[in-house]
Amino acid sequence: MLTIQKFAKLAGTTRRTLIFYDEKDLFKPKEVATNGYRYYDYDQLYEATFILELRQLGLSISEIKTLNSAVDSHTLNENLKDVLAKINTQMDNLNILRATLNTRFNQPAEVTDSVRNQPFVETAPAALFCRSRQSVACTEEEIAEIYADFYERLGKLKLVNKQDSGFRTQLPNSDANRYPDASFCILKAVTATTDTGDLPRLEKPAGDYVSINTTNDTKHICIGLRILAEYIAKNHIQINDHLWQMNLDENFTSKGASNLVRLQYQIQAQ
């Protein structure tokens, strides 16, 4: 017979764990001496190891008891099917997390240039986005509701993958006066193979964009839009009607956007 300390070492666990299992009627010692000392048999090692592995997989005490109570192979197989389903779910979740982290670490470095309110022209590749429903009232409450619904359906883990995110707003002519009430949708970059459920997708076309970086609040965005409008008029640039407001870091501070944002209009060929 083995003392509890020696059996715990052999099984790769602790004395405290064995006492806990005994108290929960999950795994009992072979004998208990009159002085209360617990003693175990070598033959109990298989059962102990099985229980410890199931606990490592996250099964509860009650779930393991159900497995141990199986009276025949059929019952045990049925119970193990439930265990397999749980393991498969855990593996699916871990695969999603792994893919999310791999995506995060493969993203280009964040923009560190904090120069604001200076228009410039940049060439951007095509990008694929998943989009939320279109806004109606443009209130803070509606923005919060759309944001919560969008990431609930897309998957909250997408928040940490560092892929591009932002808004697309219907705002012709970089019109700052119309910005506070302009209809928008939330955007999150995805790949062609990303499972987005029934959320619609849209493509941001490749091409030249007239852009400006600014602080994310209504006052500064409107200032940025006015500066952008002046630059567009001065340089006789033709733009389309969609304002792309892209987050420049992953720390959202207000209304589902980062503190520093980039306002962009695609330049139309003349």
Low-confidence stretches: none
Helical stretch count?
7
Helix content: 25-40%
Give the spatial strand order of the biggest sheet.
4-9-13-10-6-7-5-8
User: What order do the SSEs take from the amino end to the carboxyl end, as H and E?
Assistant: EHHEEHHHEEHEEEEHEEEE
What fraction strand? 15-25%
- For this entry, what is the oligomeric state of its chains? single chain
Radius of gyration: 29 Å
The assigned structural class equals alpha+beta
Biggest β-sheet strands, sense, barrel: 8 strands, antiparallel
Number of strands: 13
Organism: Levilactobacillus fuyuanensis
Keywords: DNA-binding, Repressor, Transcription, Transcription regulation
Pfam families: MerR_1 (PF13411)
Protein name: MerR family transcriptional regulator
Tell me what the structure shows.
The protein is of the alpha+beta class and 270 residues long. 38% of the residues lie in helices and 22% in strands. The protein has 7 helices and 13 strands. The chain has helices at 4-11, 15-23, 45-56, 61-68, 73-105, 140-154, 218-234; strands at 2-3, 31-32, 38-40, 120-124, 127-131, 165-170, 184-189, 201-204, 207-215, 242-247, 252-254, 257-258, 260-266. 23% of the residues are buried. The mean pLDDT is 86. InterPro entries: DNA-bd_dom_put_sf, MerR-type_HTH_dom, MerR_fam, Reg_factor_effector_dom_sf. It holds the Pfam family MerR_1. Residues 1-70 form the HTH merR-type domain.
